[in-house]
Amino acid sequence: MKIDPIHQFNIEPLFTIGHIGNQAIVFTNSSLYMFIAVALTAVLMLGGGRQLVPGRFQSIAEISYEFVASTIRSTAGSEGMKFFPLIFSLFMFICVSNLVGIIPYTFTISSHIIVTAALAFLVFFTVLIYGLYKNGFKFFKIFVPSGVPIYILPLVMFIEILSFFLRPVSHSVRLFANMLAGHIALKVFAGFVAMLGVSLGTVGWIGGMLPLALTVALTALELLVAFLQAYVFAILTCIYLNDAIHPGH
Amino acid sequence: MAEKSHGAPTKGQTGAHTEADGGHHGGGFPPFESTTFASQLVSLVIAFVALYLIVSRLALPRVGGVIDARQNAIESDLAAAQKLKDESDAALKAYESELASARSRAQAIGNETREKLNATSEAERKTLEDQLSAKLAQAEKTIAATRETAMSNVRGIAADAAGAIVQRLTGVLPDGGTVNSAVDASLKG
């Protein structure tokens, strides 16, 4: 028996939707889990009651709402609330799909760089287009920090511009790498349990308790990471949007 | 078949991997298989646009409305409570001032009554004292008169007795004037 920690990331085609040029557009397991995340978010946000004193289910929806709203207000100010639906969608989509992905035998959408990159570029272009639309050429002030001596300004500007264009890379790779590495680690340790048991018999099953305990601990850690990475993605979006709203920081 | 164009299966690389199923593409690292990108992007766009519409049109207005309604309810309840508290404070103040004025009025009435009663009793006492002193003076006068009469009677009796004693001793009835002057002298002494 061989541990194959990569198998869980395979894209399994379910049925073909159509073709764009030569490229077949296929409904895959990834698509399925995307729609599961959308459906779960919808149920979570719309399924709760509308009581004055909320029940547990309603509380989850309200806590999510307040959590994202306060994150935006604290990082991008009240003007950032314009982007509340976008940031809330990003946060819930990543958070719900990450949490679903921890369940064994499920698929984790954000373990694919194309998905996280698409979301990161969505944020990047939102920042760029909104920043230019709202501030015109003043938007480029974000590349010129105030109070920098003139002789090192070109260097600082170069670094600022480079970091601005590297944002979508770091933004997407952070989420992708965290989810990928976490799931590989989980799979490897879980695989050890079965491998020890199968190859060493009784001694192996007893020895397998250690990786089993590690798997349990890692699962708890992954729960934290699943939420934390969604939060990090959302708060970075807020910070980037803050540049577009207030470029002269 | 469409599935065939979706990632090229290269079984060799997975070696002894036995749990491969029909959909397994073997090949390289799945997240970097660019043949799957278009499908994922299309799904992602559809899913994310759907989520965005659900969130912006339905979910956020709904949850935000509930939270706002609660906030308003709490604020109006607090305002109502504050209003009631103010009212009760005002009522308490009115009650206290009413009580104070009633107390001072009661005190005033009490003082007035006491003074009036004092004056009346003083006047009554005075008339009574006057009456008593008048009666006393009259009584003293009566006593003096009675005493005078009694004294004059005593003088007469004494004179008679003296006359009679002298007559018995001497056998001679003394002269009335002498006896009287002698009695007077003795009474004075």
Helix content of chain A: 55-70%
Count the DSSP helices of chain B: 2
Number of strands of chain B: 0
Number of H/I helices of chain A: 7
What pattern of helices and strands is seen along the backbone of chain A?
A: EEHHHHHHH
Query: Which range best describes the helical content of chain B: under 10%, 10-25%, 25-40%, 40-55%, 55-70% or over 70%?
Result: over 70%
**Main beta-sheet annotation of chain A:** 2 strands, antiparallel
User: What is the radius of gyration of chain A?
Assistant: 22 Å
Multimer state: heterodimer
List low-confidence stretches of chain A.
Answer: none
Order of helices and strands of chain B: HH
What's the rounded overall pLDDT mean of chain A?
88
Q: What is the alpha-carbon Rg of chain B in Å?
A: 68 Å
Q: How far is it from the N-terminal to the C-terminal residue of chain A, by CA?
A: 57 Å
Mean pLDDT of chain B: 82
Would you tell me the structural class of the helices and strands of chain B? mainly alpha
Estimated share of beta-strand residues of chain A: 5-15%
Which properties best describe this structure?
heterodimer, A: 249 residues, mainly alpha, two-stranded antiparallel sheet, 7 helices, 2 strands, B: 189 residues, rod-shaped, disordered N terminus
Description of the structure:
- The complex is a heterodimer of chains A (249) and B (189).
- Chain A has 7 helices and 2 strands, in the order ββααααααα.
- Chain A is mostly helical and 249 residues long.
- A two-stranded antiparallel ribbon of chain A has the order 1-2.
- In chain A, strand 1 (13-20) and strand 2 form a beta hairpin.
- Chain A is globular.
- The relative contact order of chain A is 0.15.
- By secondary structure, chain B is mostly helical.
- In chain B, 78% of the residues lie in helices and 0% in strands.
- Chain B contains 2 helices and no strands.
- Chain B has helices spanning 37-170, 176-188.
- In chain B, helix 1 (37-170) packs antiparallel against helix 2 (176-188).
- Chain B is rod-shaped and about 190 Å long.
- Chain B starts with 36 loop residues before the first helix and ends with a helix.
- Mean pLDDT of chain B is 82; it is low at 1-26.
- Chains A and B meet through strand 1, strand 2, helix 1, helix 2 and helix 3 of A and helix 1 of B.
